[in-house]
Amino acid sequence: MIQDTVTQARSTRRGAKVLGAVAAGALVLAGCAPSDSGDDSTGGASGAGTSGGGGNATLTVWSWRVEDKAAYEKIFAAYEKKHPGVKIDFKAFKATEYNKILATGLAGANGPDVPQVRSYGQLQTTVASGSLVPLDGKVDVSSWDKNVVASARGKSDGKLYAVPFARQTVQMFYNKQLFEKNNLQPPKTWADFMKANETLSKAKVTPIAVGAKDDWTLPIVHEVLAAPRFGGKAFAGAVTSGKTSFTDPAWVDSVKIVGDLKKYMPKNVTGVAATDAQTLFSSGQAAMIPGGSYDLSVLQKPDPSLQIGAFEVPPPPGSTGGPTTPGWADGNFGVSKKSTHQAQATELVKWMSTPEFGQMVADEIKQISAVPGVTYSDPLLKQMSDSYSQHGSPYLLLTDFRYGAPSGTDLLGKGLQQLLLGQKDAAAVSQDLDKGVKTWFKPSGS
Q: Rounded to whole angstroms, how far apart are CA atoms 307 and 296?
């Protein structure tokens, strides 16, 4: 934002407004939540203007991942060691300012050789600006998860414009010590889940930490709590093909579930920020928190002794399938058309599609790599990756409903806030979502 952060929260939630050639977004979701600080630079990267002959080059890589700067420098040092003559200058910027900085950089002469770019709908204005080199025939991602690769393709031409760097999943994190103290186990059924909420409430522990003040988090909360109720992957196929809509009773009921569980969330939940919810969990005041794989290091940092587990919320009543792990690609790396070192930049991005780079993303950045076949030393990362591989589903409103304005995540985020405030019911929230996306969305079957 992960960000739509995700974030953190970590991935942007706003991809509709155009700033120069790139959509402006205040948050990374989808990733990942915005960072508070970044590199002091506000432009003028050396890559596009740095000369070098005979294979020598200084490549500038731009990113919004300030928190990963040290990890990326370690990763690129390994690349430099195997590619004599190539130097990589990694620059990280504040996530909330990155889209505008990148748009300016790609349009000028001092931008990055290799920009980190957004995914799915938020990539499209960058593609439309003609700022990126198509990578078809240069990078092979034919064996990758199609949902992940879709994040790096142009919507209108289907060309590959970048290489995904990480996958994100969403699930329920839980405090193992609090569960053990209250004689609880990760729930296997919805009845188990509701019993855990009641037990924790009676023990004066907030069951589910939610930061509803930041509305971009609420579609994630909805996915974690209710994806099986609306149908996960099956519903995604039906709604994108036009066979159903967001007024489908299964979808409406899934939205209602979020409201029904409000009593287990912090008091005045719409006034609680996402960072406050994380603090409640990390400090042991809340037992569970719906979040993304990108949240793991954030949750662990305040108290390294905190024992964190994760589980898929069991299917609510009325669900037609089993539990699911929603996921998406968090962002991508591309090659700037203005780079004076396109061959070297393309070689670097091609390397980013290899197991070597993917393994370093897992080991150094502590995220789920987009590259197939990567192994995970962190048991939670491995669990989340395995869960997605076994029964993953797309984070629907991010993967398919961010290609226009108003975006699906914006509409549902604001709608769920209104639901939690008692201003609208689930049917009205769903109707607003359906009406809003239909102003621009065209089903694949039409």
A: 11
Q: State how far the alpha carbon of 224 is from the alpha carbons of 13, 233, 327, in Å.
A: 17, 14, 11
Report how far apart, in Å, the C-alpha atoms of 298 and of each of 6, 100, 278, 293, 400 are: 11, 26, 8, 10, 28
d(CA 164, CA 149): 7
Cα separation, 353 vs 366, in Å, equals: 17
Please report the DSSP string for 362-408 in residue order: IIII-SEESSTT---SSHHHHHHHHHHHHHEEE-HHHHTS-SSSS-H
User: Dihedral through CA 375, CA 138, CA 90, CA 339, nearest 10?
Assistant: -170
Sign of the torsion angle spanned by Cα atoms 293, 294, 295, 299: positive
Encoded amino acid at 178, one letter? L
Peptide bond connecting 406 to the previous residue in cis, omega within 30 degrees of 0 = yes
Residue 338: left if φ>0, alpha if ψ -120 to 50, beta else—which one?
alpha
**pLDDT tens-place string over residues 189-223:** 999 999 999 999 999 999 999 999 999 999 999 99
23 phi/psi in degrees, rounded to 5: -60, 140
Give the N- to C-terminal CA distance of the chain in Å, as an integer.
Answer: 31
Q: Does residue 443 contact residue 242 with C-beta atoms inside 8 Å? A: yes
Neighbours of 130 (CB within 10 A): 10
- pTM listed for this prediction: 0.83
